[in-house]
Amino acid sequence: EKGAKVLLIEDLITDGGSKISFVEGIRNSGGRINDCLVVFDREQGGAQKLSEVGIKLWALTNLSKTLEFGLRNKYITEKEFEIVKSYLREN
């Protein structure tokens, strides 16, 4: 409905590309949207991209917290932790 306030809810976000498409569609249809809620943020630029179009990202958790939990509880090794963190920094 035109003028309706919309909250975009998704399972995860990577680079934000698909979320931008949804935001544009909602706005083009007359919806008002300022926020996006995801279960998991892969921390690969999605929050920044959304902020560039006026959207605040809310995430229940993210990759850093998940990796830290895995390391702390010995699900992953320090080496595996560093490999993934290095990958994230480079990508």
User: Ranges with pLDDT <50 over ≥5 residues?
Assistant: none
Mean pLDDT: 95
Radius of gyration: 16 Å
What's the tally of helices?
4
Proportion of strand residues: 25-35%
Q: What is the string of SSEs from the N terminus onward?
A: EHEHEHH
SS-derived structural category: alpha/beta
Helix content: 40-55%
Q: What is the CA–CA distance across the termini?
A: 39 Å
Strand order of the largest sheet: 1-2-3
Number of strands: 3
Largest sheet: 3 strands, parallel
What is the overall shape?
Answer: elongated
Q: Can you describe this structure?
A:
By secondary structure, the chain is of the alpha/beta class. Helix content is 46%, strand content 29%. The protein contains four helices and three strands, in the order βαβαβαα. A three-stranded parallel sheet has the order 1-2-3. The termini are far apart. The model has no long low-confidence stretch (mean pLDDT 95).
